[in-house]
């Protein structure tokens, strides 16, 4: 899809599975299982959704998914798709890892930043050797010293190699990264998660990461148990849902395995969605 000066394409970064109860928090299972049927381990299918933006002769990758650095035990627990689907799908678009100029992470949880690095001679190294990696400075600091509550979401091999190579570009709050592409704080899931807003030619795409991980999380109280600050998530959702609907933005869900992008519309007392194909 072309937004004025920006070309945006969706990248499927591979499927994985998380506990359905954790994904829907206080919502009773008889309600959420109708929308996301669980497997025999109570896990629901998710996707690691990414975007490739091309502008000003630069290739910008938004999110890197789960990556490939998985032990057999963890790969089984999370049902991580085999292979390297993100890199494979970049290749389909004619882009090699060394042609990526910037990688933007919404935050540094393993399902959003796992593909930041790969194993080279059994040591994690940046997957995108010529890229600037962009995230909030406070998120880098938190990832290095997480709480007991979220420690399992941060793997140091996903962020330390870029510190060692000098490839981090740390942001401090809402920032225009390059003309038309901005980072916007959406706190709740954690303190320093950021959405990525792409605006050009009178159109806007809003990559919301874990604010609405899937289309099934559009209802205000459908909030993940993974969120550190659920009441803040509630207010952040309320704010941005109104903006997205009123301004007719395209929203990209962080983990929806079937409908990664959609427009949102008020329909009676709920928010309805209309799928959008970013690659058409």
What does this structure look like?
By secondary structure, the chain is an alpha+beta fold. It has a single domain (2-275), classed as Ribonuclease Z/Hydroxyacylglutathione hydrolase-like (Metallo-beta-lactamase, Chain A). It contains 8 helices and 16 strands. The chain has helices at residues 20-24, 29-35, 72-78, 85-92, 110-113, 137-144, 160-165, 230-247; strands spanning 2-3, 6-19, 43-55, 58-62, 102-104, 117-120, 123-126, 132-136, 168-171, 175-178, 181-185, 194-200, 203-209, 250-253, 261-267, 270-275. The radius of gyration is 18 Å and the shape is globular.
- How many beta-strand elements? 16
Tally of contiguous helical segments: 8
Percent helix, as a range, is: 10-25%
Name the helix and strand elements from N-terminus to C-terminus, one letter apiece. EEHHEEHHEHEEEHHEEEEEHEEE
Strand arrangement within the widest β-sheet reads: 1-2-3-4-5-8-9
Alpha carbon gyration radius: 18 Å
As a percent range, the share of strand residues is 25-35%
**Distance N terminus to C terminus?**
6 Å
- Structural class, from helix and strand content? alpha+beta
What's the CATH C level? Answer: Alpha Beta
As for the CATH topology, it is Metallo-beta-lactamase, Chain A
What is the CATH-assigned architecture? 4-Layer Sandwich
How does the major sheet shape up?
A: 7 strands, mixed
Q: Spans of 5+ residues with little confidence (pLDDT < 50)?
A: none
Mean pLDDT: 97
**Count of discrete domains:** 1
At the fourth level of CATH, the homologous superfamily is Ribonuclease Z/Hydroxyacylglutathione hydrolase-like
């Amino acid at each position: 899809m072309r937004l004025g000066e920006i070309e945006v394409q969706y990248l499927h970064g591979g499927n994985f599975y998380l506990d359905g109860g954790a994904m829907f928090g206080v919502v009773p299972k008889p309600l959420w299982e109708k929308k996301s049927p669980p497997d025999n381990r109570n896990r629901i299918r998710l996707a690691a959704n990414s975007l490739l933006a091309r502008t000003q002769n630069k290739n910008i990758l938004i999110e890197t998914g789960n990556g490939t650095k998985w032990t057999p035990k963890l790969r089984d627990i999370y049902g991580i798709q085999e292979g390297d689907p993100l890199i494979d799908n970049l290749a389909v678009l004619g882009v090699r890892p060394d042609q990526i100029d910037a990688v933007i992470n919404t935050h540094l949880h393993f399902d959003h930043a796992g593909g930041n690095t790969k194993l080279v001679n059994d040591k994690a190294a940046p997957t995108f050797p010529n890229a600037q990696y962009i995230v909030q400075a406070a998120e880098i600091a938190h990832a290095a010293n997480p709480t007991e509550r979220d420690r399992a979401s941060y793997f140091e091999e996903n962020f330390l190699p870029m510190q060692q190579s000098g490839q981090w570009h740390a942001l401090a709050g809402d920032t225009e990264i390059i003309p038309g592409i901005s980072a916007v704080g959406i706190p709740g899931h954690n303190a320093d998660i950021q959405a990525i807003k792409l605006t050009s030619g009178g159109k806007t795409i809003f990559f919301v990461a874990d604010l609405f991980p899937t289309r099934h999380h559009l209802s205000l109280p459908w909030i993940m148990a993974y969120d550190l600050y659920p009441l803040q998530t509630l207010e952040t959702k309320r704010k941005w849902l109104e903006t997205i609907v009123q301004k007719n933005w395209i929203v990209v869900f962080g983990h929806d395995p079937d409908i990664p992008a959609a427009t949102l519309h008020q329909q009676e007392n709920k928010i309805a969605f209309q799928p959008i194909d970013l690659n058409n």
